[in-house]
Design a protein that fits this description.
The complex is a heterodimer of chains A (about 375) and B (about 350). Chain A is of the alpha+beta class. In chain A, about 30% of the residues lie in helices and about 20% in strands. Chain B has about 350 residues and is mainly alpha-helical. The chains are: A alpha+beta (about 375), B mainly alpha (about 350).
């Protein structure tokens, strides 16, 4: 690991230790962290705030994780842990939204460590490289829009009011739900919730457009003031009298498939675009709130939508650090703009130095 | 004395419901039916051999025969209430003595479907479904005490919390049961009375099945021999013709065992078993009889589904899920012999 990044992490965990709290039911959760040079250390049990702070101050790890699951024996191997339940978690990632701007701030880090934006490295000719994205405000705003949709659906439809959103520290948000009603739900049940918030799998009957609608069982398109998805869909696609009349006629003349296709088209627009694989995983470990994200050097912090998370989460310090950087795109961080940088030494605030190091766009000076 | 006790581990005892004789006749699977029997002072020997109870014995067998035929046992006119109750209890005893587990599931499912009709009409009639009401109706009490589902009445509809709905709905394959296709608001799912009781059919069947397996009965009872023989005959049609004895991984052995016992294997378990055996080179015709033990067995449906597994996924057939996936579906029954494998197909192979 970079010596600069290592020293910044030590300082971070020294100065901010008192602000970092162990999550609820900490003794029942599995903790883990990334140890540079030897990989993931898992199956750790932490009893309380003091135990967590000891772990962080001793190791100053680039990544710290905690399970959403509660176990009888969190420190034992997976098969012996005895699962007792799990928080419900949603992940919204800007990369899944595939916005057109993404191509403008994506770079490739070649195996020779140089940075470029082509299929083939202009420095060594290698085609082996790793994609890195430096998300822009548009990306993170779009991801937050999905979180807002999600929070509204959780509250209005599913009656979940205590959900907490976190900026993940990189390209998106995590929404944590610690609701006793959902602890015991298994993967299948959580998939149903994931499908619900995404409006995935809806059938025309839901919005009053039955198959083979006829006089006996007429189509009755959903009204905008209906609760839940029927109303939400009606406000999106059946808001006008003309739209409702057209939908009714279509349903009564064998237009079921068309109605089905329209619902599928609406899903990414009115549904929350989450990663269902995360929500359904009842054994996953998640980045711990208050710790640093090793992919960016930014912190995972609670987020309510006001301001710029790339400013608020840049907490590794503003004192200048010199690094050897190569960053062909501009990026905004900590309230300032940086780059582009041609290959060479630059002096930037510590948080920006850490950001580029974590992204593979900078290294310690020789 | 006839008892439905704890011969085998059963669900923890719950607080008794206050139910009347007419309600016990509709829901004879409740614990309280056993208490009713005790209170009347008749013994199992009386029911099995006393000529006065011939109608009870015949009705008990008729209930089982109806189940074997996939029918719901319903008589034109209701019999005397005690006969309705005793015949169910005696049917349970007959089944337990027969040890024909293939019949347990079928009987449980048929009785669950029978109860469903009463549950629905009681639920429609009952205006006190609210769980906050101490005098709530019998259906609300059954749902709460047996299945931990708290229902509320809202106009003609029934509402229940989203988690309760999910715990009982994910076994359905039809798209209309998906949560996204339900009317959901404020954390509650709105259902018609019919949907509410249909939702719990599988749970009621499991409960009845557990009542049979936990019934405390002697190995044989004079007077019931011909009834038990008849059950053995009926069960032959549902017992798997071929039982695989090869070295299958424990998850597969467990799934086969579940079917052999006539218990319900969830959809995910059926998918695992079907894909595993197809990928192991078994033919559809070899595999289909294994599913005979399923309480809802239907030959045509089974063949159709196995063909779908074999020809699906773009024609190459579906793969058996990985061990990780099976773990999340509660289908993994790992043993020491599973060490080092990540897929059931790797079991027993040199590594």
């Amino acid at each position: 690991m970079s010596a600069i990044l290592g020293s910044l992490l030590k300082r971070y965990y020294f100065e901010r230790l008192a602000d970092i709290r162990a999550p609820a039911r900490a003794p029942e959760r599995e903790f883990g962290y990334f140890r540079p040079g030897s990989g993931m250390v898992r199956h750790i049990s932490v009893r309380d705030d003091a135990g967590l702070r000891l772990l962080l101050s001793q190791n100053a790890p680039p990544d710290v994780y905690c399970s959403n699951a509660y176990y009888a024996f969190p420190e034992l191997p997976m098969r012996e842990k005895e699962w007792r339940g799990a928080d419900l978690i949603f992940d919204v990632d800007a990369k899944d939204l595939a916005l057109p701007c993404r191509a403008e701030h994506a770079v490739r880090v070649c195996e020779c460590s140089r940075v470029h934006a082509r299929a083939e490295c202009p420095h060594c000719g290698s085609q082996k490289s790793q994609a890195r994205s430096l998300p822009c405000k548009k990306c993170i705003k779009a991801a937050w829009d999905e979180v807002e949709k999600l929070l509204k659906i959780l509250e209005e439809d599913l009656g979940i009011t205590g959900a907490i959103a976190y900026f993940s520290g990189n390209e998106g948000f995590h929404v944590h739900v610690e609701d006793p009603g959902t602890y015991k739900l298994g993967s299948k049940e959580r998939l149903e919730i994931a499908d619900y918030v995404s409006f995935r799998g809806a059938i025309p009957e839901l919005v009053g457009l039955p198959r083979n609608a006829e006089k006996k069982k007429p189509a009755k398109p959903a009204e905008p003031d209906n609760p839940g998805w029927p109303g939400r869909y009606a406000r999106h696609a059946l808001a006008s009298k003309a739209a409702r009349s057209r939908a009714k006629k279509e349903a009564e003349s064998g237009g079921y498939q068309l109605a089905q296709a329209r619902l599928a088209e609406a899903a990414p627009v009115i549904g929350a675009r989450i990663d269902p694989g995360v929500t359904t995983d009842v054994h996953r470990i998640f980045r711990l709130a208050g710790t640093v994200n090793g992919k960016s050097g930014l912190s995972k912090i609670p987020w309510e939508g006001e301001g710029d998370p790339y400013e608020a989460a840049a907490l590794l310090g503003g004192d200048p650090r010199e690094v050897v950087a190569e960053c062909p795109v501009r990026f905004a961080l900590g309230g300032s703009r940086f780059g582009p940088f041609e290959h060479g030494r630059v002096r930037v605030p510590a948080y920006a130095a850490a950001y580029m190091i974590c992204k593979g766009l900078a290294s310690d000076p020789a | 004395m006839l008892e439905v006790g704890e011969d085998e581990p059963a669900a923890p005892r719950r607080k008794k419901l206050e139910v009347g004789e007419d309600e016990l006749a509709r829901y004879p699977f409740l614990d309280e039916a056993g208490d009713y029997m005790k209170d009347t002072g008749f013994s199992l020997e009386d029911l099995a051999a006393d000529p006065a109870f011939g109608r009870v014995r015949d009705m008990a067998l008729a209930r089982i025969e109806a189940a074997a035929e996939g029918r719901v046992f319903m008589k034109g006119a209701p019999d005397e209430l005690p006969v309705e109750i005793y015949s169910f209890l005696l049917a349970v005893v007959m089944l337990k003595i027969s040890s024909r587990r293939a019949m347990y599931g079928r009987f449980a499912l048929a009785e669950a479907r029978r109860a469903e009709r009463f549950l629905e009409s009681d639920l429609r009639r009952d205006t006190r479904a609210s769980m906050g009401d101490a005098t709530r109706g019998v259906v609300a009490r059954i749902m709460h005490d047996l299945f931990e589902v708290d229902i509320e009445r809202d106009g003609d509809d029934i509402t229940m919390p989203v988690p309760s709905y999910l715990l009982h709905s994910t076994g359905f394959h039809e798209r209309e049961w998906k949560l996204v296709n339900r009317r959901v608001s404020g954390g509650m799912v709105r259902l018609t009375p019919r949907e509410a009781v249909r939702l719990l059919r599988s749970a009621v069947a499991s409960y009845i099945s557990s009542r049979i397996t936990s019934a405390r009965t002697p190995p044989s009872v004079p007077g019931l021999e011909k009834y038990v023989s008849r059950i053995t005959e009926l069960a032959a049609a549902f017992e798997p013709a071929a039982s695989y004895t090869g070295e299958y991984p424990p998850c597969i052995k467990h799934a086969i065992g579940v079917l052999e016992k006539g218990e319900n294997l969830p959809h995910s378990g059926r998918f695992m078993l079907g894909t595993y055996l197809l990928n192991a080179g078994k033919s559809i015709e070899e595999i289909a009889p294994l599913f005979k033990g399923a309480p809802d067995y239907n030959e045509n449906t089974t063949l159709y589904q196995l063909r779908s597994l074999k020809e699906g996924a773009g024609g190459s057939g579906y793969s058996c899920p990985s061990c990780d996936k099976l773990r999340t579906q509660d289908l993994c029954h790992e043993t020491a012999e599973c060490a080092g494998i990540s897929h059931p197909g790797q079991f027993g192979r040199g590594r």
